[in-house]
Amino acid sequence: MSGRRTSMAKIVVLFCIAAVTAFASIASADDGGCGGEHFGKQRHHDFKKIGKKLGLTDAQKAQAKAIFQGNRDAVKPIIASLQTERKNLQSLIHADTIDEAAIRAETAKISGIQADLNVNRAKVGAQFRAILTPSQLEALKTLRQKNHKKCGAAPAPAQ
Question: What is the pTM of this model?
Answer without folding.
Answer: 0.63
